[in-house]
């Protein structure tokens, strides 16, 4: 087990290196001069040239990559072109805010999804299965911003019980204003839900069809013991793997939700950086999302192994 | 609603029977898979239910547990120890599962929950049904594990199923079934899929359980040998009808139904006196059950009256009944089985020569700086040759390396050392590195026909491919040849347009054989080609393989990999017995099956449950096959050998001994000592073999 974790961490470093290389290349090879964009239309060629010099853009691309990677490994993420401030503290706050959002959404949706997946698998083909399955299909089909706007419309504008905007005042902790979190968390949770439910349902259906569940039934165990003890443990394994992947996905996928609710998370930072061509921030946020994705996968594998003795060697 | 109906059969009056099944009919949708079945099992009695796949025997077994799984019991009644199973509400039925009736399943690997420790899987039923506490239930689980003869029960309870061997897993399932001392124990193919040596020890365990308790056994099996060894009475099912019933010895020795007779003739025997014969035709469509005898369409002695009215059970002798109008003519009119042709080694040119072949599978690498896991030594210096027109059987338990050897010969894998020569040419390479002619000349028939055919191709495309690729046939010539080959494997022209999913298991394997023979091979590696098939189909396929070999212009040689010694006896000229990646004995079939043999061969033969009583040794192998990552020193069989000579066995590699020309075995005992040891054991046995 420890051996596997060490190996996976090594692999993780390798993946992150590949990601950093690709991101750097894509951003730097794209047409359009960063310096010109930063300075705006009115800039003279001399000014552009000076800025290029200052940003080191005249160096060969590989040299720039190595020095950027070196800086990042030392914890120096560079300076934002747009704000002229070091990126690191900005990144830390934003990442923290996003993690709060993603984590709350996950905590809310996983138990609900496992419950719904199990119920629909047990009552397969019944009206309860059909209602839940069609509802999840509908929510899956709706884009995040539609779900977000619908929630704002209902709770923010008609009922006026929750704020429609989730701006956090500078320096305040997101949990200090729990009300502003409700709608974004709900939107993300509803977005994750269908996927989890379907995978749990499929896993549980397979578990219920298995010989070992038949053994449990023929041992005379009551249905709830068969479902919770025998089927669930094996049936949620595929869902666990997906949930881990979703954690990483969620951070990247928060872009839309954070934008809709003006929530100061890493996704929103990435979007604003992209429109401003703030290259250092784009690179840093992409790296953070990639790292989150890889770590999420690793965590999912570890949980899978903990649940599945066949993988424990 | 369940109708009450009088059984049409003639059940033996057993007022105190543990299990009473009366007029049971079960359907799945429109298919009436079980019809009007009546049977009784007395306390302490073992009743065998035999029949091929689709006969409804497992359906009956599960319905006795009250588990219909989507089916409906349209008529009849099942009573176990006074409980009317089919009318009970779920809650009450649950109370019976375990304490009154329990089941041992086929395929223990899947029957046990992979993520729960085996001790808990035994204990949970005890806790639920008796209200025992955790510690008490676990103590009982340990006791049960001890009773099914697993070593170190305190350690075993903490294991997960994947940490046990197949035989050990089945012992756990048996312990689980016995936990609450049920009145009726159902065994559904309990040894199918296990090695023959493991099967023998599991059957011994079940016999012992039967002797020390008064439990009634319902034994479901397609293996007549197993039923002959285990059961007092036997019922024969065909397509949902109970067609014959009686005392085991009587039914199996003097069958009074053409189907029973056919089943028995299809069994390959290690005694090898009689030729096995398949049953032509296939199961009828059970959505529209014909009015008369259900077996009529496949019966060679059917008369007009057979199709006119339902055939009643007729008493042959007291306690022996047959659902056949012509049971009196059964023995006289059906062709008596013919003596099997004696096969002897051939002295044609050497077609395949394998010399000191080694193959090991390197262990998974752990971390860059740690040593990798030990390698699995699948083949440790194997040498043999096969002559033109010859069939060489390779036998051994799972993990002996026999399939690996087949894959090397076929070029599906590459050896780590040694050479493989085909017709004198070195072909020690993967198939794609061989010449086109060598690729064509060596063909492979796989164990599982269900996954060996491309589901998106028609039979015509499958069989036509080697013809186009290797022989360059096209157009009408191609078509003519495909039809010809399909006819040779007894599939007509109408099969051309079928897709694999429209074929039965036997038909699929015939297509695989047709594909292999389309290439006009000179050597065919057959890896357990019939182990996934019913015995009646197996007999027919083996016959066809032999006919194809006899008629082939190239004197095709077979390398026949199997674990079934009965099959070996019937089709092989020579036999190689493998253990842990080595050949321990090699020789003409008659020399392998006659005493004295290598102790491992002897144990393999002793383990085969035979249909007809034999004076065979009762030798049993204890313990599990050692890990192929670290084979034992000296003679690799010494850890399990019942004829251990002494320390020399673990210290020195055994010398090669020979009792006849072309025969070789590796043992520290000399031939005469082995002969004396084997005869002594047979004479010392006071009790006769089971009647």
From TrEMBL, chain A:
Stated name of the protein: Binding-protein-dependent transport systems inner membrane component
Location of the protein in the cell: Cell membrane
Classification of source organism: Bacteria, Pseudomonadati, Pseudomonadota, Alphaproteobacteria, Hyphomicrobiales
PANTHER family in alphabetical order: DIPEPTIDE TRANSPORT SYSTEM PERMEASE PROTEIN DPPB-RELATED, PEPTIDE ABC TRANSPORTER PERMEASE PROTEIN
Gene Ontology, cellular component aspect: plasma membrane
Main location: membrane
Entry-linked Gene3D superfamilies: MetI-like (1.10.3720.10)
GO BP annotations, alphabetical order: transmembrane transport
Family membership: Belongs to the binding-protein-dependent transport system permease family.
InterPro entries (alphabetical): BPD_transp_1_N, MetI-like, MetI-like_sf
SUPFAM superfamilies referenced in this protein's UniProt entry, alphabetically: MetI-like (SSF161098)
Keyword Iron-sulfur included in the entry's annotation: no
Keywords: Cell membrane, Membrane, Transmembrane, Transmembrane helix, Transport
Membrane topology (UniProt): Multi-pass membrane protein
Domain ABC transmembrane type-1, chain residue ranges per copy: 95-304
Pfam families the UniProt entry points to: BPD_transp_1, BPD_transp_1_N
Domain of life: Bacteria
Species for this entry: Chelativorans sp. (strain BNC1)
Chain ranges passing through the membrane: 9-30, 99-119, 131-159, 179-197, 236-261, 281-307
TrEMBL record, chain B:
Recorded GO MF terms: ATP binding; ATP hydrolysis activity
Membrane topology category: Peripheral membrane protein
UniProt similarity note: Belongs to the ABC transporter superfamily.
Keyword Transport attributed: yes
Domain of life of the native organism: Bacteria
Main localization category: membrane
Protein known as: Oligopeptide/dipeptide ABC transporter, ATPase subunit
The ABC transporter domain, residue ranges: 19-264, 352-605
Pfam families: ABC_tran (PF00005), oligo_HPY (PF08352)
Coiled-coil residue spans: none
One GO cellular component term noted in the UniProt record for this chain: plasma membrane
Intracellular or extracellular location(s): Cell inner membrane
Keywords: ATP-binding, Cell membrane, Membrane, Nucleotide-binding, Transport
Species for this entry: Chelativorans sp. (strain BNC1)
UniProt-listed GO biological process terms: peptide transport; transmembrane transport
């Amino acid at each position: 087990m420890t051996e596997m974790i060490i190996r996976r961490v090594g692999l993780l470093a390798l993946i992150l290196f590949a990601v950093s290389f690709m991101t750097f290349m894509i951003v730097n090879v794209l047409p359009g001069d960063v310096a010109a964009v930063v300075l705006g239309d009115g800039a003279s060629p001399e000014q552009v040239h000076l800025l290029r010099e200052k940003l080191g853009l005249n160096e060969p691309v590989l040299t720039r990559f190595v020095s950027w990677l070196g800086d990042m490994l030392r914890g120096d993420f560079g300076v934002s072109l747009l704000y002229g401030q070091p990126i690191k503290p900005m990144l830390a706050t934003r990442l923290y805010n996003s993690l709060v959002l993603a984590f709350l959404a996950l905590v809310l949706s996983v138990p609900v999804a496992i419950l719904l997946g199990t119920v629909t698998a047990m009552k397969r083909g019944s009206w309860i299965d059909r209602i839940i399955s069609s509802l999840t299909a509908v929510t899956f089909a709706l884009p995040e911003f539609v779900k977000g706007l619908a929630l704002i419309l209902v709770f923010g504008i008609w009922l006026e019980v929750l704020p429609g905007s989730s701006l956090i005042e500078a320096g305040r902790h997101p949990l200090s204003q729990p009300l502003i979190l409700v709608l974004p968390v709900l939107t993300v949770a509803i977005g994750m839900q269908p996927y989890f439910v379907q995978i749990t349902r499929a896993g549980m259906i397979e578990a219920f069809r298995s010989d070992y569940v038949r053994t449990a039934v023929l041992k005379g165990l009551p249905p709830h013991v068969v479902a919770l003890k025998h089927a669930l443990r094996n049936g949620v394994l595929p869902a666990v793997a997906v949930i881990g992947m979703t954690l990483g996905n969620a951070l990247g996928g928060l872009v839309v939700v954070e934008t809709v609710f003006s929530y100061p998370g890493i996704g929103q930072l990435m979007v604003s950086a992209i429109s401003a061509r703030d290259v250092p921030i784009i690179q840093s946020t992409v790296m953070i999302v990639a790292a989150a994705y890889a770590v999420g996968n690793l965590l999912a594998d570890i949980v899978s192994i903990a649940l599945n003795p066949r993988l424990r060697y | 609603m369940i109708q009450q109906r009088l059984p049409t059969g003639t059940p033996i009056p057993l007022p105190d029977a543990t299990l009473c099944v009366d007029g049971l009919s079960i359907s799945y949708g429109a298919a009436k898979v079980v019809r009007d079945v009546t049977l009784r099992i007395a306390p302490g009695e073992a009743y065998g239910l035999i029949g091929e796949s689709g006969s409804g025997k497992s359906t009956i077994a599960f319905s006795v547990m009250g588990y219909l799984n989507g089916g409906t019991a349209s008529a009849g009644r099942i009573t176990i120890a006074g409980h009317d199973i089919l009318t009970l509400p779920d809650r009450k039925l649950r109370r019976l599962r375990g304490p009154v009736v329990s089941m041992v399943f086929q395929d223990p690997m899947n029957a046990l929950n992979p993520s729960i420790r085996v001790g808990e899987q035994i204990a949970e039923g005890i806790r639920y049904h008796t209200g025992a506490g955790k510690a008490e239930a676990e103590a009982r689980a340990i006791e049960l594990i001890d009773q099914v003869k697993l070593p170190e029960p305190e350690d075993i309870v903490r294991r997960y199923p994947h940490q046990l061997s197949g035989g050990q897993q089945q012992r756990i399932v048996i312990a689980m079934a016995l936990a609450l001392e049920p009145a009726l124990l159902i065994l559904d193919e309990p040894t199918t899929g296990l090695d023959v040596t493991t099967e023998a020890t599991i059957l011994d365990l079940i016999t012992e359980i039967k002797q020390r308790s008064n439990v009634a056994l319902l034994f479901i099996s397609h293996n007549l040998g197993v039923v002959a060894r285990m059961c007092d009475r036997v019922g024969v099912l065909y397509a949902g009808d109970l067609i014959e019933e009686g005392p085991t010895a009587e039914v199996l020795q003097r069958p009074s139904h053409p189907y029973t007779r056919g089943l028995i003739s299809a069994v390959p025997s290690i005694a090898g006196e009689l030729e096995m014969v398949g049953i032509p035709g296939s199961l009828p469509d059970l959505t529209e059950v014909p009015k008369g005898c259900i077996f009529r369409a496949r019966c060679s002695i059917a008369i007009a009256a057979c199709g006119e009215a339902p055939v009643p059970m007729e008493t042959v002798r007291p306690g022996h009944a047959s659902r056949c109008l012509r049971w009196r003519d059964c023995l006289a009119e059906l062709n008596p089985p013919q003596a099997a042709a004696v096969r002897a080694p051939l002295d044609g040119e050497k077609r395949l020569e394998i010399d000191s072949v080694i193959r090991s599978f390197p262990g998974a690498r752990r971390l860059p700086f740690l040593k990798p896991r030990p390698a699995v030594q699948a083949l440790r210096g194997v040498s043999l040759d096969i002559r033109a027109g010859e069939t060489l059987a390779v036998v051994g338990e799972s993990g002996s390396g026999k399939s690996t050897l087949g894959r090397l010969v076929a070029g599906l894998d590459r050896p780590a050392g040694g050479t493989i020569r085909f017709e004198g040419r070195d072909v020690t390479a993967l198939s794609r590195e061989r010449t086109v002619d060598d690729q064509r000349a060596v063909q492979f028939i796989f164990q599982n026909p269900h996954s060996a055919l491309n589901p998106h191709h028609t039979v015509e495309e499958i069989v036509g491919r080697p013809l186009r690729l290797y022989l360059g046939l096209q157009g009408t010539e191609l078509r003519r040849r495909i039809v010809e080959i399909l006819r040779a494997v007894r599939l007509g022209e109408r099969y051309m347009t079928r897709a694999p999913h429209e074929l039965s298991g036997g038909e699929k394997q015939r297509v695989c054989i047709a594909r292999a023979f389309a290439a006009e091979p000179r050597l065919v590696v057959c890896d357990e080609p019939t182990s996934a098939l019913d015995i009646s189909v197996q007999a027919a396929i083996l016959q066809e393989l032999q006919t194809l070999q006899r008629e082939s212009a190239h004197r095709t040689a077979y390398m026949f990999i199997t674990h079934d010694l009965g099959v070996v006896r019937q089709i092989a000229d020579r036999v190689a017995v493998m253990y842990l990646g080595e050949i321990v004995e090699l020789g003409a079939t008659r020399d392998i099956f006659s005493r004295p043999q290598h102790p491992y061969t002897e144990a393999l033969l002793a383990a085969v449950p035979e249909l007809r009583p034999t004076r065979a040794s009762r030798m049993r192998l204890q313990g599990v096959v050692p890990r192929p990552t670290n084979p034992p020193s000296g003679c690799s069989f010494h850890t399990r050998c019942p004829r251990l000579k002494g320390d020399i066995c673990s210290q020195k590699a055994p010398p090669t001994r020979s009792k006849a020309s072309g025969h070789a075995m590796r043992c520290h005992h000399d031939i005469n000592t082995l002969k004396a040891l084997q005869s002594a054991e047979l004479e010392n046995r006071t009790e006769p073999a089971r009647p």
